[in-house]
Write a structure and sequence with these properties.
The complex is a heterodimer of chains A (253) and B (379). Chain A is an alpha/beta fold and 253 residues long. Chain A has helices at 44-51, 74-80, 97-110, 125-137, 153-165, 183-198, 210-216, 234-239, 241-248, and strands spanning 4-15, 18-29, 33-37, 59-64, 67-68, 82-85, 171-175, 202-206, 219-224, 227-232. Classes of the chains: A alpha/beta (253), B mainly alpha (379). Chain A binds chain B through residues 52, 54, 73-75, 78-79, 84, 86, 90-96, 99, 102-104, 106-108, 110-124, 145-147, 149, 163, 167, and chain B through 1, 3-4, 197-198, 200-206, 208-209, 211-213, 215-224, 226-227, 230, 368, 370, 373-374, 376-377. The complex binds adenosine-5'-triphosphate (ATP) and magnesium ion (MG). Magnesium ion (MG) is lined by residues 44-45, 87, 175 of chain A.
Chain lengths: 253, 379
């Protein structure tokens, strides 16, 4: 039996009177791709926010690799090996694509703070080469010296994916990684994510696109109005009547 | 690597330009030591300020406090230890660094406008304290001066007393006009070199990433506070060095150096020259100090003299219009200059230079449009 990399234990979170998350209990197993689906406003992004320390839960805890991480600061959680790719791209718009990918590589190599002010960044050839490699993998090789601000939304997502992957996280949290991408780019992103899976990286992926979900996920959790309404293999979930009603049959485009 | 070679050329050109100031400033009537010292000193102040504001994105309105503290430290070193500038500058670095660490530690808990206001508040507090509680250290309104009977323990232990109040020296070389200028010039070049290294280093890249998207940095695994604090301390030390050099060229320290107008001036220098560029702040400092020197020198009689070719009625009319902009009123001219730059050249004079080069220079160096908003790689 494989062990759980991430255990979200009995988490509650409300915003004012709105129960964004209630009774959330969820385990993500080592090496799997775990999809979270659900209608808009179901609480999916909030769940990831709780995991990375952006939002403190009202009660419950998040356990990563056997250690409680609730209450830790975001950079500590990242340094432990959880990386998140955001729903609205979070990049460094004033830096070049290459620099955007080099920055997280420095965090991985040098830790949360290093005063390395006297060695030229140019001479960090290892980090530079690795950054170029990941840029190529997400299909942005030709643009390494352009400013990230000038990218399209879909390209920003691919850039952010490279920024996450270069850190070789234990757990990668992807919030709608293919939203805003063309069909072609979506497919190449799926291929890339499959390739990473072969290397054994554990992933949580939030997706509206069922094609992406069913081609990647080992396990699917369905969230609606802050509660888990179904949890199982893709086939089980697809067959479930509750899910059909709450999500797949109803509001899905 | 070519980037490395470009930086070397850049540094050499900068060094030559600074050292040759007495030659190329002569046609502008600015080639006398007192003024050139100011160019170099405020250049250092602005380069350091840009490390915090231009690279890291934190706008401090209180940096003159570090300038003032540096001056006091240097004068105390002259009084207590030695007239040699080395311990004076070393003490200025130490004291301004510690002072910046304390103020930065508190101010950096906030960002944006709240940070700016905190720094302003701290600087005004320092200014007021210099006139009240700290008068034993600052000598209040009179200002801290050298005296005949200062201890100068190191000097007294090593050399016989010369008559009169001694002047600051560098291992025996008295720092008169030109010597003092060249000392300031060499330190300016060193400071420029260090800023360039920081700019090109991974640390500099992190500072720019913080400026670009600070929250993202936390989710990327960085503890941003030590980065911003380091940038704050480094720029505080630059200000301290500048303050120390002011005391070297004129061994007298007064609290007016810490006033908010002085803090505002370095903001103007940096923006006028080009925020985030390496050499822009120096250019801004030179331009502002140059025009200050010209405009503040005018007075009524001189104006009447200049416009005497006009018919009487018109002359007094023109003089009455021009006079508010010169002499004491030179800040009005500075304000207008600043507004024009911000409105028409938001990237400062460096952007102006870049536009001119793009129009007339044609091909070279125009490969990527990135440069206009990202000054990191080339300038
Ligand atoms: N920081 C916040 N403050 C207040 N309310 C919030 C906050 N974050 C989320 N919410 C609310 O919580 C609910 C769940 O939001 P969440 O972003 O988690 O949904 P989601 O499942 O990711 O939806 P989508 O598919 O649209 O991204 C929404 O009603 C949202 O308005
Ligand atoms: Mg969401």
């Amino acid at each position: 039996m494989t062990n759980a990399v991430l255990h979200v234990a009995d988490v509650h979170k409300s915003f004012g009177g709105l129960h964004a998350l209630s009774d959330i209990d969820l385990q993500v197993m080592e090496g799997t791709t775990h999809a979270i689906i659900g209608p808009n406003g179901a609480g999916k992004s909030t769940l990831l926010n709780v995991c990375i320390g952006r939002i403190p839960p009202d009660s419950g805890a998040v356990v990563f690799d056997g250690k409680v991480i609730t209450g830790k600061r975001p950079h500590e959680i990242n340094q432990m090996g959880i990386v998140r790719v955001f729903q609205t791209p979070e990049i460094f718009p004033d830096l070049t694509l290459l620099q955007n990918v080099m920055v997280p590589a420095f965090a991985k190599r040098d830790g949360a703070f290093t005063l390395n002010a006297f060695r030229g960044a140019d001479r960090e050839t290892e980090i530079r080469d690795e950054a170029e490699h990941w840029l190529a993998d997400v299909g942005l090789a030709g643009y390494k010296d352009t400013l990230a601000a000038s990218l399209s939304r879909g390209d920003k997502r691919r850039l952010e994916l490279a920024m996450g992957l270069i850190q070789h996280p234990r757990l990668l949290l992807l919030d709608e990684p293919t939203a805003g991408m063309s069909r072609h780019d979506t497919n190449s992103t799926i291929d890339l994510l499959k390739k990473i899976k072969e290397r054994g990286m554990t992933k949580v992926i939030i997706e509206h696109d069922m094609h992406v979900v069913f081609s990647l996920a080992d396990r699917v959790t369905v969230l609606a109005q802050g509660r888990i309404i179904a949890d199982g293999t893709p086939e089980e979930v697809r067959g479930s009547a509750v899910v059909q009603e709450a999500y797949l049959g109803g509001t899905h485009r | 690597m070519t980037a490395l070679r470009n930086d070397l050329i850049y540094l050499v050109v900068f060094a030559v330009a600074v050292l040759a100031m007495p030659i190329w400033l002569a046609p502008f009537g600015a080639a006398y030591p007192d003024l050139m010292q100011k160019f170099a000193i405020y250049g250092i102040f602005a380069i350091g300020f840009n490390i915090l504001f231009g690279m890291t994105g934190y706008l401090s309105f209180g940096h003159a406090a570090f300038l003032g503290v540096g001056s006091y430290a240097a004068v105390w070193s002259f009084k207590l230890l030695s007239m040699n500038v080395i311990p004076a500058i070393a003490l200025a670095v130490l004291v301004s660094g510690l002072f910046a660490a304390a103020i930065g530690y508190i101010s950096l808990r906030r960002s944006g406008i709240y940070f700016s206001i905190l720094t302003l508040a701290f600087a005004q507090m320092s200014y007021n304290l210099a006139y009240s509680v700290f008068t034993p250290i600052t000598n209040g309104e009179t200002g801290l001066q050298l005296a005949l009977n200062d201890p100068r323990v190191i000097d007294r232990a090593l050399f016989a007393d010369a008559p009169g109040i001694p002047r600051p020296n560098l291992f025996g070389i008295e720092l008169g006009g030109y010597e003092a200028f060249y000392l300031c010039a060499v330190i300016l070049i060193l400071c420029f070199f260090v800023a360039m290294r920081i700019d090109r280093s991974p640390f500099g890249m992190m500072l720019k990433a913080i400026k670009s998207n600070q929250t993202r940095m936390a989710y990327t695994g960085f503890n941003t506070r030590p980065y911003t604090l380091s940038a704050f301390i480094i720029s505080g030390i630059y200000a301290g060095i500048a303050g120390g050099l002011l005391a070297v060229t004129d061994p007298l320290a007064g609290a007016e150096r810490m006033q908010w107008t002085a803090s505002g001036e370095v903001v103007l220098m940096t923006i006028l020259g080009g925020v985030g560029t390496l050499v822009g702040p120096v250019i801004g400092a030179v331009v502002i100090k140059y025009f200050e020197n010209i405009f503040s020198a005018f007075h009524m009689a001189k104006l009447e003299d200049i416009f005497s070719f006009l018919p009487d009625g018109l002359e007094s009319f023109v003089v009455s219009i021009v006079s508010p902009f010169v002499g004491e009123g030179w800040h009005l001219t500075l304000g207008i200059m600043f507004m024009l730059i911000v409105v028409f050249l938001p990237g400062g004079l460096m952007e102006g230079a870049r536009r001119i080069r793009a129009r007339f220079g044609g091909g070279r160096g125009t490969g990527s449009k990135a440069h206009s908003s990202n000054p990191a790689p080339a300038e």
